[in-house]
Amino acid sequence: MTRGLKRSQVGISEEMIQTYGDAIFDLSHNLQIRRGDPVRELNWEEIEKQKENAGISDIEIARKLGLTHDQVTYIRTTMERRRFNRHNYHRLYDLGGGKRFRTERYIPHSERFTFRPEAIALRKALDFDPRSATKYLKLGHWNGDTVSAWLDNWAEKTPDAIAVRGPDGELTYAEQRDRARRLANSLLDIGVQKGDVVAIQLPNLAAFTTAYFGVLMMGGVLSTMHMPYRGGEMKPLLDHAGARAVICAGAVENYDAPATMMNLRDEVDTLEHVIVATGDAPSGTLSLQSMIDDGSASPVENPPVASDPAILCFTSGTSSAPKAVVHSYQTMLANNRIAAPIYNMTQDDVVLGGPPFTHAFGLCVLNFTLMAGATSLLMPAFSPPALIELIESGKPTVAFLAPAHVAACLKTGLLDSGDLSSIRIATISGSACPPDVAYALENAMPNGAVGQMWGMTECFMGLHTPFDSPPEIRCETLGGTTPTFEARMVLESGELARDGEDGELEIRGCSVIAGYFNNADANRTAFTGDGWFKTGDLAVRDAGGNIRITGRAKDLINRGGIKINPVDIEAVIDRHPSVLMSAIAPIPDDVLGERACVYVELQPGSSLSLEEICAWLDKNEVAKMKWPEKLKIVDNMPLTPTRKIIKSALPSR
Amino acid sequence: MAIKNDIDPAVAKQTILDYCLKKGALVAGVADIKAIERIAPEGHRPSDMWPRAKSVISLGVGGQTQGAWHIPAKALGYFGSTEVRAYTIAYGAAFLIENKFGKRAIYCPPDMDTEAGPRVPFQSLKLHAELAGIGARSLAGDILLHPEFGYMYFASVFTELELEPDRPMQENPCPTTSCVDLFRKTGQTPCMKFCPVQCLSGDIDADGNQAEMRYDMASCAEMTQQFESVPAVLADAIRATDEEEREDLLFDAENKILWYKLSVGSGGLLGQCFECMRVCPIANQSPQADPIRRYETRMAAGGDEA
């Protein structure tokens, strides 16, 4: 429209715009060319000659092209509008303050700041109750901390301090940050974007830590795959996570991880890249080391912030509806900050993490170590001799172990013979710990104290024993709630359990996730809607406020209406000299509904009958009604990465 | 209106230029109106605006402070407001001419020609300044530069007072030696190299003088003329396929700045059209509403001309 006249009044068709548009645009001021300096020199011949190059007015163009003045103005302004790229203005946002435009480096904002639909969907898992979120933010439980910021902090303050010590090398904090930055930039270079999920299946190696920091540094979400998993188990998890890349170890004798991952790449729609962290990277994969070597050492342009998703862990099974836990930096790191005073860790500490980094417990330990600027002492694979040798050679001052780690060392006699004098505190967690195992570790550490911690992937650490509490508290209970957390025991009726009464443990706090990612059914059963998470663990609180886990709600055996909790019985059976480990689980019964079956993995060269087990239980004053009625000997007990028995995977269940 | 006929053009010119410098202009001069008439495109000559104009006075004020050049570009974009200082002085000079010499004068509006759209000014203040000898065209899209004062903002005054015109500058400070050196190495001067939309290109001859200046003004406008975004945003919002996209377009922080500029932040954009005042017998016909009458009144009372 020009001077209020419509296109039809000016006598314009779209065809006219197409026909004359470019010519008018070029003749106008929109493109100006000057040769020499004729105006300043008052060189009239040149001025006249160059007039059209300098841009002539609409009326002059009209005369030249045989159009009306209005038609030219209409077409010119239409062309100006159509050609105008308003998003070019965004280029200014990167300039000034010492920064200059560089054509060769410029990438449009629209390309630099993109989330894939999968990444946006993942964020929907961070759907917190606004009242809780506001509370956590106001109280400072949630703040702006990120893992990258913590790494930056130590890389600046103590660049030469050892960040990680493992069989594949030692890295200072400065080296760790440099390698992580290079990896982060390489990941961006190959097209991994902020918010993308990068899966990882690696043992506790320095390479894992670099991958962890690198992926998080570029805003990726790290999804851990447990080491025993193979293609069949991983496919639904990678599908569920929408993983864009996977980092794995090189091929070894019993497992060709790169080949497995490449097959998965063909099967999982989103999976594009296979990155091999150790050994040779076969054709079709990328070498983690090469990515580190080739990556830019510059800080990542658009790093993650605290509210971004950081990790995605799967809590159970490999079913069609996995329980995927997404933690933001806020929920993940709040737990470390809040629990830090319990451990009183400093830069001088050397921290041995028994649990694998593919488990939330392992990542929790890694974050604790990072927060303190301490050294991570890595144990890629557990065996009692490997653990004791690592303690003796690496001299950790802080240890995080699972009950099974300690129990295995105890059974082999290595706990008593090993030198554990460097350890000042040892935390047991991962599953319910029999008191005798905890006392044994306490006694094996001449300079150390045992503590217990209870946590789940969904909330990290929720219960703990203070290290200054008496041994009976630290070895026989889980203590009280972690600061800022709340815990309650709920009866089947929905009423709150009283002290001394078993109930399902529910927990609420700033590290509890909002819900599982893309699993509405699980969310309905596990979350109350007002911040409480139903843990599925049975627990009892004593008069002193100390909590003890008594079992799993789903593990209770309903024998003709009588509920049998197998935990205490298993603890007694585990002490039998012929038993390496045991588990009691229900088997169907036509009359009683369920009966108890005990599964036993024997000590090498031992044998055992049901009668002998019952005699053992009788001797240890276990009521007859709780005795198992069937025995099954297993060669290898199915274990979680934290060496917790997977009852659902017991044979013939 | 009483017209004074005994004005010494040289004295008048000096008085006017002195006034401009005293009020804060760094430079001032008189452009040859005949040259402007020959060079300016039709419709944008002084005679197209005011046929009675006989002289064009041009003045320049300092641009950004040194500190300003070091701030983020998005904020620097607001520093064009120093041009208001130039306009104020020009406005004052126009009043001075009418008040002191009894000759009509207009502060030349720096604004855009409403009939031609937002890329076409009524007049080229740049051409006025160049011909007045207070700036020379640079390779940076013909932005005028001064060897002493660098980058300036300009304003013009038209008057029916006849003044002796000045000559354009003898030398062009653009390009400097360092710019020539960079051009020899890379084919670009700094202004070309660092332009965010690469709207500048050109050539330098063997003597280090400008051989060619190419300016893609349409691309430049994408960085400087955000008002073009207003209708574009609205059009996109109308076409948006879903509510979320529409809301993002309308309520995005950057786009909301556009609405802000259209309302409280607009400055003169929402100024009156002045037609009511132009036809109002009180507004411009009151005895002392007219500065020339004010001059006559003061003279009749035996006042000083100063």
Descriptive report:
The complex is a heterodimer of chains A (653) and B (306). Chain A is α/β, with parallel strands linked by helices. Among the domains of chain A are: 7-84, no CATH class; 556-649, GMP Synthetase, Chain A, domain 3, CATH 3.30.300. Chain A has 26 helices and 26 strands. In chain A, the strands form five sheets. Chain A has a nine-stranded mixed sheet, sandwiched between helices. In chain A, strands 8-7-6-4-5-9-10 form a seven-stranded mixed sheet, sandwiched between helices. In chain A, helix 2 packs across helix 7. Chain A is elongated. With 306 residues, chain B is α+β, with helices and mostly antiparallel strands. Chain B folds into two domains: 9-173, NADH Oxidase (3-Layer(aba) Sandwich); 175-224, no CATH class. Helix content of chain B is 41%, strand content 14%. Chain B has helices at residues 9-22, 33-39, 46-49, 73-76, 83-101, 125-131, 177-186, 190-193, 217-224, 229-239, 243-251, 253-262, 275-278, 281-285, 291-300; strands at 27-31, 55-62, 105-107, 136-137, 144-146, 150-159, 200-204, 210-216. In chain B, the strands form two sheets. In chain B, strands 1, 2, 3, 4, 5 and 6 form a six-stranded antiparallel sheet that branches. Chain B has a two-stranded antiparallel sheet with strand order 7-8. The longest helix of chain B has 19 residues, at 83-101. Chains A and B meet through strand 1, helix 3, helix 6 and helix 7 of A and helix 2, helix 4, helix 6, strand 4 and strand 8 of B.
